[in-house]
Amino acid sequence: MTTAPEADTTAEPAGAAEVTDEHLARALGLRVCDLPALRDLTAKVAAAPGGPPLRLRDLLHRRLRSAVCDDMLDPRALLSARPREAEPAALDGRPAVPLPEPEPLPGITLADAVERRSSATTYAPRPLPLTALAALLEGAAGIRGRRPGYNVRDFPVRRAPSAGGLAPVDVYVVANDVTGLDRGLYCYRPGGRELTVVDSGNMRGKVTEAGIAADWLFHAPAVLFLALNMGRVEWKYGVRSYRYAHVDLGVLTQNLYLVATGLGLAGCAVAAFDDDTANDLLRLDGRDEFVSLLFACGLPAGR
Ligand SMILES: Cc1cc2nc3c(=O)[nH]c(=O)nc-3n(C[C@H](O)[C@H](O)[C@H](O)COP(=O)(O)O)c2cc1C
């Protein structure tokens, strides 16, 4: 009887090519000329046993420095630049629900709004009025005017500032209990002041599944999913867009908090969510478009 030869565990897997500097740089999203700095950083860490290990953040932060990001648009090219789609184009032509005239924002002082703002994870078991949802969306993420920009006459100016005004955050709404709105998933389209229908039906279970240890999401009358559309900014800011886009998302989130406070709504940002589940729910590819934060809201509990 013959025995099979033992597998050589030291051998390279069949078909594995030698990893060259070009391969390594490409896989890490670096340039070959970045590798010496990476090796230097790695050597320093290796030479200091017991010292802090090299973290992914060190690599990212080093890579996204302005001095290294050489794929930003040359300012001269802006003279002939055209803006990209400002809203998810894939949803064009789908049925949409026009938003009603929003509730007017109450004239509370900025000091009051900042002072009263807080996060709330319990909500009254009553529907969120669509006029309040419209006021939240319009007040935090709506278009407040148009002016010349990027070689068009009517470039939209939003209520939330963003790097270059490029507004990379798309707001999707899961309506669980909103007056006058069928349960389902919608995409807020500020240009037409409407909610485009993405999916219909009861999404409470799916939203709760997307949250991590956030069962309270099941009871939220509405859950906003804030998704980043990287193509909208990368043509101008290159890889550094990853930093800017998250700042833009934070700015919009604070707008949501302050406008919700003004409207007397309860809300809470949620970073603890499962990326794949959330992206699948919104039908985003998770690469060029991906969910980066949730914001649950409703009428405050106990009132
Ligand atoms: C970016 C961000 C992510 C957050 N993620 C969560 C979360 O996943 N779950 C949660 O219960 N609260 C979350 N919160 C709410 C914070 O816990 C809350 O803001 C913090 O405790 C301070 O309380 P305050 O908002 O009432 O001042 C988040 C807040 C922010 C700004």
Helices, by number, come to 9
Indicate how many domains the architecture comprises. Answer: 2
CATH architecture of the largest domain: 3-Layer(aba) Sandwich
CATH topology of the largest domain: NADH Oxidase
Largest sheet: 7 strands, antiparallel
Estimated structural class: alpha+beta
Low-confidence stretches: 1-11
Into which percent range does the helicity of residues fall?
25-40%
Instruction: Give the amount of beta strand, in percent.
Output: 15-25%
CATH superfamily of the largest domain: NADH Oxidase
Distance between the termini: 82 Å
- Ions, cofactors and other bound molecules: flavin mononucleotide
Order of helices and strands, N to C?
HHHEHHEEEEEHEHHEHE
Spatial order of the strands in the main sheet?
Answer: 1-6-5-4-7-9-8
The count of β-strands is: 9
Briefly, what CATH class of the largest domain? Alpha Beta
Shape: globular
* Radius of gyration over C-alpha positions, nearest whole angstrom: 24 Å
Whole-number average pLDDT?
Answer: 90
Observed structural traits:
303 residues, alpha+beta, NADH Oxidase, 7-stranded antiparallel beta sheet, 9 helices, 30% helix, 20% strand, globular, binds flavin mononucleotide
Question: How do the strands and helices of this protein lay out in sequence?
Answer:
Layout (H helix, E strand, L loop, with lengths): L20 H8 L6 H12 L9 H8 L32 E3 L11 H7 L13 H12 L1 E7 L2 E7 L10 E7 L8 E6 L4 E7 L3 H7 L11 E8 L1 H7 L3 H23 L2 E5 L4 H8 L6 E10 L5
Antiparallel strand pairs: 1-6, 2-3, 4-5, 4-7, 5-6, 7-9, 8-9
The chain binds flavin mononucleotide.
Flavin mononucleotide binds next to strand 8.
